[in-house]
């Protein structure tokens, strides 16, 4: 059996991506564990994907709010026609 020196082991386990630690309640952990197992992925991968999806949804909500504000100030009389833009 060959032992890897601690320094080399830490280097080989290093990741290029930042890491975070979170504390969650047991019921949430249980759900994450069950669903990730059913999907055949690690809990970490599953939480990473959930986080991406949540951020995309949040972005959609914020962009929706932005669009609503712009729509309030829209004046059709001042808008350019399709022809004015593309010709």
Structural class of the secondary elements? Answer: mainly alpha
Rounded average pLDDT? 87
**Could you tell me the number of beta strands?**
0
Largest sheet, in brief, is: none
SS strand fraction = under 5%
**What's the alpha carbon Rg, rounded to whole Å?**
24 Å
Number of helices: 4
Q: Level of helix content?
A: 55-70%
Distance between the termini: 75 Å
Shape: elongated
The ordered string of helix (H) and strand (E) elements is: HHHH
- Uncertain segments: none
What does this structure look like?
The protein is an all-alpha fold and 87 residues long. It has one domain (25-86). The protein contains four helices and no strands. Helix 2 packs across helix 3 (43-72). The chain is elongated and about 60 Å long. The relative contact order is 0.05. The mean pLDDT is 87.
